[in-house]
Specification:
With 337 residues, this protein is α+β, with helices and mostly antiparallel strands. Helices cover 62% and strands 12% of the residues. It contains 12 helices and 8 strands. Strands 3, 4, 5, 6 and 7 form a 5-stranded antiparallel β-sheet that branches. The model has no long low-confidence stretch (mean pLDDT 83).
């Protein structure tokens, strides 16, 4: 004991302080390490729970989209963020969000305009029909985008904005943007960004159709030449070109807001006897030529010639026949079950 006492007496004050400090820290570690282990376990459990929740969401979303065929608002919003694919066209992914956008806008229009005139069976049949139409259209837009890359074709934001402004004035009505957006929201359930996406896809497909359809461009040139030689006699030109074009007469005055690919709108810009020259239909499926017969402030009587685009659909159908379109969902017509 005396020996230990002598050793303690020889220690400096600094050594005694350090020794005491180490004793205190040693006692503290007894409480610190269990707490660290607990925190570590909490972090691991939190990560595991997060992974499980994420897996449930992913699996649930996959089942809802690909097996149950659900099309509700929440899933649509998710597909706008998550790049889910509903099909592939020649190995190009078809965006699920585009398919749902096309389908939901069509069904919103049907449901809001038709009210309760359809029974449940009819509604289900319509849903299946419009799902098929929407998926095919989404596939065509994807194919158009693929061809656009190859042909170095693009649609700019300015072109979309110009097309949006043109739609504001369809039928000669100078609508406000707010009023127009309310119309498309009420009738199609779409906001501005969705409508602009629709315009973008339509413009891209139209540009591609024009670029690849040499035959339509050739026939349109023939129409222009023959009209100039026949004093704008649309009937005679249509008869001469036969099945290569389609000819139509309104047979009387029609509303300037008539949904006819933009023909009534173009006719309203003309004076009686004048011809519009070539212009692309609003849905991008061909060229139109219009000649005004008579008009009032809100109606027009006109004749028209259409030169349809066919090359795009021909190429798309070749992909279908060669089984280069693979769909991730199955659309079943309830009437054929």
């Amino acid at each position: 004991m005396s020996l230990l006492k002598k050793k303690d007496e020889k220690k400096t004050e600094q050594e005694k302080v350090e020794e005491r400090r180490e004793e205190v820290l040693a006692k503290g570690r007894k409480f610190k390490y269990p707490l660290q282990w607990t925190k570590h376990r909490i972090v691991i459990n939190t990560i595991l729970i997060s992974i499980i929740i994420l897996a449930i969401i992913v699996v649930g979303g996959w089942l809802a989209l690909y097996r149950l065929g659900m099309t509700d608002e929440l899933l649509y919003r998710i597909t706008k963020i998550v790049p889910a694919s509903v099909a592939t066209v020649d190995n190009e992914a078809v965006r699920f969000s585009d398919y749902l956008m096309l389908y939901r806008s069509s069904m919103t229009s049907i449901e809001r305009q038709s009210g309760s005139q359809f029974d449940q069976s009819s509604v289900e049949s319509l849903r299946a029909e419009y799902k098929r139409i929407a998926l095919t259209e989404a596939e065509k837009y994807t194919f158009a985008a693929s061809l656009a890359k190859q042909l170095d074709i693009e649609v700019t934001k300015e072109e979309v904005a110009a097309e949006f402004d043109r739609h504001l004035k369809i039928g000669g009505i100078d609508r406000s943007e707010e009023g127009f957006l309310k119309i498309i929201s009420d009738n199609f359930g779409m906001d501005k960004s969705e409508y602009e996406r629709m315009l973008y896809l339509s413009l891209l497909k139209s540009k591609v159709s024009i670029a690849i359809d040499e035959n339509a461009n050739k026939i349109a040139g023939q129409v222009e030449k023959l009209l100039s030689e026949n004093n704008n006699n649309y009937g005679a030109v249509a008869e001469q070109l036969g099945d290569a074009v389609s000819y139509e007469e309104t047979g009387g005055l029609v509303d300037s807001k008539n949904i006819d690919g933009g023909r009534a709108s173009e006719a309203m810009k003309l004076e009686p006897g004048a011809s519009s020259g070539k212009f692309v239909s609003m849905n991008g499926d061909g060229y139109y030529f219009v000649k005004l017969i008579k008009k009032t402030d809100s109606e027009a009587n006109f004749v028209s010639i259409k030169v349809p685009f066919s090359e795009f659909d021909k190429r798309f159908n070749e992909l279908v026949e060669s089984q280069k379109i693979n769909e991730s969902i199955k659309i079943v017509d309830p009437n054929n079950q």
